[in-house]
Queue: 4 jobs
Job 1
Amino acid sequence: MAAAELDINFPPKIKVDEFLSNESEYRQPPNAYMIYRKVYNRTLKSKRMRLSLTSVSKLSSASWKKAPAEVKGWYKKFAAEVRQQHRKMYLRYKEVRPGPMKSDVSSCKVWIFVPENPGQI
């Protein structure tokens, strides 16, 4: 079976906690595609298919683009649950959008660490 024809169980058996490790405080929560990619990679591993991470990204991206709206909607809803749980656990984080810049990065999200005691910086 080629990896591009990989059958991914839907809905996958995943939990929000799997995407909230101890290091999550310093990272933004994953979006719908990144969760899909992780499930895709796990499926490859369960079928004993070993590919480079670059190949996994290319294949999962192609699979994501072909996925029906129902599948994408489920992953988007799950990603929102992960993001909501992340916000509850790490209240010191806030998501901001940068102001106008001269480069194309003005549309990206930036996560800012807000110290508990700003006077101690």
Job 2
Amino acid sequence: MQATLTQHPDKLAANSVRSIDHFQGGTVHCLRGRLWITAEGHAQDIWLTPGMRLTLPDPGKVVIQADTDSTLSLIAPPQRRPLTVSLQHLWQRLQRPATGVIGPRCDGAC
């Protein structure tokens, strides 16, 4: 199943399971009920109760089971620019002449 990550609450009935085969990282937030989370690459399963969040930064399969009638949100991670774009932006900023720099006045004998 391909899950859409959203901050909108999603209901999961007691004993039902949601399997996300290609989870691309994000946060599972339990708003109500109790959730059992199994994530590929993690040694232990996690129980979430209302107010608890689990951030899974790595892609992989995630299985969420509701122990009781539950409400959850799947929150996408913040979008990050590729490192090359960030470095290019920084380099461009460094190439600009400094303006508005406040410092000691130099009359040529500095």
Job 3
Amino acid sequence: MNRLIVLLLGAVLTSAAWAKLPELTEEQKAAAAEKKAKADEATKKANEQLAVAQDRVAGKYIEQMKAKGVTVTPTPVVPPAPPAAAPVPAPAAPAAAPAAK
């Protein structure tokens, strides 16, 4: 029971702290955008390095299997298609006027 109380108290205090944060300044927004761009670039570079390493490992595996007399053909991988745009909802029909009595 004490753990539950402590957890609830912590959640309330944490949510209160987040609610009082001020808006970001233009400098902070620019710094955040720059940081995001650097992170995206680093992720792209890491993904490229991963692909090179995977190709190298696959190549060695194919060579080893070839030496054993086993024919290995890699499965072609098609990159995923970009997500489709969300469909635009049809405009709602106008509401009928109430009947007069």
Job 4
Amino acid sequence: MEPVAETNGGQGFVSGGRRKSGSLWGGSRFQMPLHYPNYSKAEYEAMPECQLDRLLSEYGLPVAGDVAQKRRFAIGAFLWTTNR
């Protein structure tokens, strides 16, 4: 009988008692912060780049690109369609 793959309390997948290295997102370690960001579209558009970088990195999201790309990404990721 072959071992069954199962999750290990958020520590990755295990198979036959061994933890498989890596993660599902190419090595990224996504971690959900305690609070969902609650900014308006206007606040994202006025947010300084360093704050955008910190916000995106808290969620394990990419921080590459210029400030306009980061703003568009944050608006798309964190705002519901009714808030845009």
